[in-house]
Write a structure and sequence with these properties.
By secondary structure, the protein is α/β, with parallel strands linked by helices. It has helices at about 5-20, 25-30, 30-50, 50-65, 75-90, 145-160, 185-190, 250-265, 305-325, 350-360, 380-385, 420-440, and strands spanning about 90-95, 100-105, 115-120, 170-175, 195-210, 215, 220, 225-235, 235-240, 275-280, 290, 290-300, 330-335, 345, 365-370, 385-395. The strands form four sheets. The chain has an eight-stranded mixed sheet, sandwiched between helices. Strands 10-12-8-13 form a four-stranded antiparallel sheet, covered by helices on one side. The protein has a two-stranded antiparallel sheet with strand order 7-14. The relative contact order is 0.18. The structure holds zinc ion (2 copies). It comes from Forsythia ovata.
Length: about 450
């Protein structure tokens, strides 16, 4: 820890406490004492994260994980590598959590607890880009940047471990499996990773933004996501005698057309929803009307209320259209009681805190207000339980070739952003614990 940061921590903290308790959080962030403290902390952290050996080490981790991608709940060697690195640092951890997950702890071991999260899983995609550290596993690839998320969180662990004696509580490091299938966060929560946690932070690299830009927004950020499968049954027969059959293909077709009207005719144009039918299956021969047809799709909204209303209408429309054509329909929704993934809703106070930390690390000019968008992220499941914030970290750099979107076989990242991600994680956790401990209104 730098002398400057240490002296500020010792001198400013008691003074800050007196001032802070009378201010709102928004005001307290403008408190010059806190600003000085946070910017000194951010300065120290970014300097440490950018030390050449730390950068080289983070790149090495990202590349090793990239070479050996593992799908949801199969992240055994990824998890083993994470544990090895935590062992090297002397960070304690719990394992296995949710089959392959690792949960590290740094700090006093006492409340408050603040959590940082990285996801570990890869995708069933064949990497097409030729480079030194290309995926060694056919048909599997880190095409969503989760390899970078792990390297950044391990980088943050190294920084926080160095600062451990100054942490005003405990940092929980969540390395979770299975983000891509939407199950990882749910299992981690069932195994208690959020017990006593007051706040959580997570980030995602994204090629939409230039390297070093961070983007987020308060409130609803990413959409909630659900899926459905409808089996429409009729009566099979010879296609030359349709009067002797009940045609499920026709019922499926009119169902698909009518589903489009829910968004275009029943929704306020200023409200945002999506219904997309993505699979249609039925029949095997040109001259046979089949017994049944199946349609599968997804739907997205930004509120739980809209989510359930939309789900109800999807069921009504498919059943109604099937009945018009004398068919019956059975509809299954993924997740009986809950959406597959709820909307990602950032807590306004934590968002503001992260924004100020980000501004200190990447500068005001590189801190953007992101628009809401229809993608989904299982970090949302944590945000249903505790206050937190999620942000996007730009990795777009033409020279690094990192111009392809997530889930693309040419996807890659600009590795020069690894220290930025590590620094944001570490600075947020450190300063959150300080705020929590010193500001009664932050409880
Ligand atoms: Zn993804
Ligand atoms: Zn992802």
């Amino acid at each position: 820890m730098g002398i400057l940061l240490l002296s500020i921590l010792m001198v400013v903290t008691p003074v800050y406490f007196c001032c802070c308790v009378q201010l709102s959080f928004q005001e307290s962030c403008l408190n010059p004492f806190l600003q000085e403290l946070n910017s000194s902390l951010a300065e120290h952290v970014i300097r440490f994260a950018n030390e050449p050996e730390i950068v080289t080490w983070m790149k090495m981790i990202r590349r090793k994980i990239h070479e050996n991608p593992e799908l949801a709940f199969e992240e055994f060697s990824t998890s083993s590598m994470i544990r090895h690195e935590l062992d090297q640092m002397g960070v304690k951890y719990r394992w296995p959590v949710a089959r392959t997950g690792v949960v590290g702890t740094i700090g006093s071991g006492s409340p408050p607890f603040v959590a940082l999260r990285a996801d570990m899983d890869a995708l069933p995609i064949q990497e097409m880009r030729e480079w030194e550290h290309k995926s060694q596993v056919d048909g599997k690839m880190h095409a969503c940047g989760h390899d970078a998320h792990i390297a950044m969180l391990l980088g943050a662990a190294k920084i926080l471990q160095q600062l451990r004696n100054h942490l005003q509580g405990t940092v929980i490091l969540i390395f979770q499996p299975a983000e891509e299938n939407g199950e990882g966060a749910k299992e981690m929560i069932r195994e208690g990773v959020l017990d006593n946690v007051s706040a959580i932070f997570g980030l995602h690299v994204l090629n939409k933004y230039s390297s070093g830009t961070v983007a987020s927004r308060p409130g609803p950020f990413l959409a909630g996501c659900g899926s459905f499968k409808a089996v429409i049954r009729g009566k099979g027969g010879h296609a030359a005698f349709p009067q002797e059959s009940i045609d499920p293909i026709l019922a499926a077709s009119t169902s698909i057309i009518s589903l489009q009207n829910i968004v275009s005719r029943e929704t306020d144009p200023l409200d945002s929803k999506v219904v997309s039918v993505t699979i249609m299956q039925g029949g095997d021969e040109f001259n046979i009307i089949p017994e049944s047809a199946t349609i599968v799709g997804t739907f997205r909204t930004f509120s739980r209320k809209n989510f359930y209303a939309l789900r109800k209408r999807i069921e009504e429309v498919i059943k109604g259209q099937s009945a018009v054509h004398r068919c019956s329909a059975e509809i299954e929704f993924d997740g009986e009681e809950h959406p597959t993934l709820p909307p990602t809703i950032n807590d306004e106070r934590i968002y503001e805190h992260v924004r100020q930390i980000s501004r200190m690390i990447v500068g005001e000019e590189n801190t953007e207000l992101a628009p809401s968008f229809m993608g989904s992220e299982d970090f949302a499941v944590y945000l249903e339980k505790v206050a937190g914030s999620f942000l996007l970290l730009g990795v777009r750099n033409e020279k690094a070739g990192s111009v392809y979107p997530p889930h693309n076989p040419y996807h890659t990242i600009d590795e020069d952003v690894l220290p930025i991600g590590a620094a944001i994680h570490a600075t947020f956790a450190f300063s959150y614990l300080l705020n929590f401990t010193k500001c009664s209104h932050y409880l």
